[in-house]
Please model this.
Amino acid sequence: MGDMNAEERIAELEAKVAELLAEKAAWQGEAKELREQLAHTLAQIGQLLARVHELEGRLAKDSHSSSKPPSSDGLARKTRSQREASGKKSGGQPGHEGHHLKLVETPDEVTRHRPSHCQQCQQSLEGVEGEIVERRQVQDLPPVRLVVAEHQVEEVRCPHCQQMSRGSFPEGVSAPAQYGTGVKALAVYLHQYQLVSMERTAEVLQDVCGCRISEGTLVSWEQEAASRLEPTVEQIAERVACSRLQHADETGMRLGGKLHWIHVNSTRFLTHLAWHKKRGRPPGVGGRPERPGAFDARRRPAVAGARRLLCAARRAGCVGGSVFRDPHSRLCDATPPANPGSASSQERAAQAISSEEPVG
Model:
């Protein structure tokens, strides 16, 4: 009986050992699977860390440390002022001649303010000649409204042969009701030069002038202005290309969702802007030098002007106006004449062209 108990005990222990071995094998298999998962997770972590490092490197790049354009710097970039503290308080300094609004010699409207009675004895002063002792002027805008000019065509019967003869409308008057060149010029100026959106340009015209236009109308006006500018732009490109010295640079912008480049070529008086799909010096872009001469590709303040398209507003009404501007300023005219009131913008533009010396 004791022997049977020993055999049963041995069999029980062997079964227990087999169970433990099976459990050990299961744990070993699970441990192997966990090690594989850990290795895979560590590999993924390594890849993610490399990606984070790459993205952090991209974020650290700007227009000064890479080929990225300045427009991509965003607001996060901290600029460092190169100006040194002068120790003076801000504002006008002692001895500085201030500037203020000046009186005009010939005002458009004059209103006289006379006393009606003597301030001492209350005697009536009606009809008594007075003397102007002080004058003040208020410079303001007149009420803005549309001025409607109606054109009427007449028919006249000849008293000799009884033939009916009809007059004709002026050139450009082609619809029963249309907007004139002044409205067109203002709309193109706001959208193209002041960079007001198309929707807000239409809103400004409606609020200020009472003009209701669509975005399609604004686009057609800009196309009209661009077509009128083509001869002037070609002339600018020719003059810039023949200059002894010119500055050139480019800045990126998106057209139709794709990256293009605005190329700026400028001389002392002229600036030519053109867009192209390629950067650098692509062929066919106006303003590149045609003859040997000095070529400056350093950054100058003129590059900022490349972000503002040519001021086409003043040419929307078939006016040949000037697209010549000093590359160091935002003005659209060349250097002013000695007497600003003695020359029109077209004459000043012609003076600017004649002052550009081509390579001999």
